[in-house]
């Protein structure tokens, strides 16, 4: 008797008279044909799963410093993006790849735009005689911030062994993980809302522009915060929220307006800010869930919408906290939209600092 597989069940069949093995069976998904040495018949056997890829590891230099630490992790809202319009003006333009698969950003150019002096973490470190550790990088999704944690652990083994006792760890994350119904990320959605012309409605009226992965983002963030709570158990962990990007106002007729952002109506600006509020709500929920799991860990969500109150709708004003669309000359002499667009201004980062200090 030979074994012929139909679906997932092995069915006995009468052996053929010829000496050669029976024909190779068609196996179901997850199975492959194999010649059984004992019977000379073809059978379907489960396919061995491929080995998991090796986890990213840090294999660079290590450091020691007796001072307490302030660690800045996260995306562009932590790196300082927005303070300068040109990439070369930042203290560190690149730095998004470490080694051994440790990508600290999702950007192929590995740009980070790190500002080591005017962002909240370094300012707090300087004011309190602490060592600033700066790993935030623009374009980072939650997984890349997880890689930043791996670098943090690898670079500072003494502090890692002490579970970062006495340290302050701050970060922003989640904005780059958002995806719309058409699969676009957050920066692409903002660009679409600016350039898309629809005489019958705004960009918010098109369901393809709506964020459709809120649950996934919250899960990623909760996993990230859980990892931090386990590795930096003895630190003060502060998860910073995002500012409302636009902040439109009503004119004397009661109509919402967004005068400085060409191409965005007041109603579209309100909707964009509502997405920021929804993201902040997910961040807060993820933090609360982790706090409930690790009640002894000093981890808090820090909202910033009451600190950064003047958004891009008035981004051309000297008192703005968030930039309007910003342009910069490329190396080839072409005027391009800068990544500083719709990011905090220097004044905005000072407000971020105020929010951090008030919640320590």
Can you characterise this structure?
By secondary structure, the protein is an alpha/beta fold. Helices cover 28% and strands 15% of the residues. It starts with a strand and ends with a helix.
Highlighted features:
360 residues; alpha/beta; 2 domains; two-stranded antiparallel sheet; 8 helices; disordered N terminus
Largest sheet: 5 strands, parallel
Q: Kindly report the oligomeric state of this protein.
A: single chain
Structural class by sheet pairing and helices = alpha/beta
Could you give me the name of the CATH homologous superfamily of the largest domain?
SGNH hydrolase
Head-to-tail CA distance between termini? 75 Å
Helix content: 25-40%
Number of domains: 2
- How big is the Rg? 26 Å
The total of helices stands at 8
Order of helices and strands: EEEEEHHEHHEHHEEEHEEEH
Strand segment count: 13
CATH architecture of the largest domain: 3-Layer(aba) Sandwich
Low-confidence stretches: 1-19
* Highest CATH level, the class of the largest domain: Alpha Beta
Q: Biggest sheet, strands in spatial order?
A: 6-5-7-8-11
């Amino acid at each position: 008797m030979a074994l012929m597989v139909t679906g997932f069940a092995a069915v006995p069949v009468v052996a053929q008279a010829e000496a050669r093995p029976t024909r190779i069976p068609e196996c179901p998904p997850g199975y492959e044909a194999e010649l059984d040495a004992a019977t000379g018949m073809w059978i379907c056997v489960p396919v061995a799963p491929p080995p998991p890829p090796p986890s990213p590891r840090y294999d660079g230099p290590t450091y020691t410093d007796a001072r307490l630490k302030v660690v800045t992790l996260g995306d562009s809202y932590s790196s300082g993006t927005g303070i300068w319009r040109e990439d070369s003006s930042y203290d560190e333009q690149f730095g998004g790849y470490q080694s051994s698969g440790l990508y600290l950003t999702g950007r192929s150019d590995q740009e980070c735009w790190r500002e080591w002096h005017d962002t909240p973490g370094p300012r707090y470190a300087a004011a309190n005689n602490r060592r600033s550790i700066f790993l935030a990088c623009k374009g980072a999704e939650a997984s890349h911030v997880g890689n930043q944690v791996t670098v943090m652990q690898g670079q500072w083994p003494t502090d890692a062994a002490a579970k970062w006792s006495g340290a302050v760890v701050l970060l922003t994350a989640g904005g780059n993980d958002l995806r719309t119904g058409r699969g676009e990320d957050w920066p692409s959605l903002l660009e679409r809302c600016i350039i898309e012309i629809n005489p019958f409605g705004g960009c918010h009226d098109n369901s393809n522009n709506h964020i459709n992965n809120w649950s996934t983002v919250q899960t990623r963030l909760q996993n990230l915060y859980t990892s931090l709570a386990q590795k930096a158990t003895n630190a003060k962990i502060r998860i910073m929220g995002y500012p409302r990007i636009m902040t439109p106002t009503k004119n004397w007729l009661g109509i919402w307006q967004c005068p400085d952002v060409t191409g965005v109506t007041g109603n579209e600006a309100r909707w964009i800010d509502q997405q920021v509020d929804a993201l902040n709500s997910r961040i807060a929920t993820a933090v609360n869930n982790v706090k409930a799991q690790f009640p002894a860990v000093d981890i808090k969500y820090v909202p910033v919408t009451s600190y950064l109150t003047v958004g891009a709708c008035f981004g051309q004003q000297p008192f703005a906290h968030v930039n309007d669309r910003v342009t910069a000359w490329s190396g080839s002499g072409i005027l391009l939209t800068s990544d500083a667009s719709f990011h905090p201004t220097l004044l905005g980062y000072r407000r971020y600092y105020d929010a951090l200090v008030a919640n320590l």
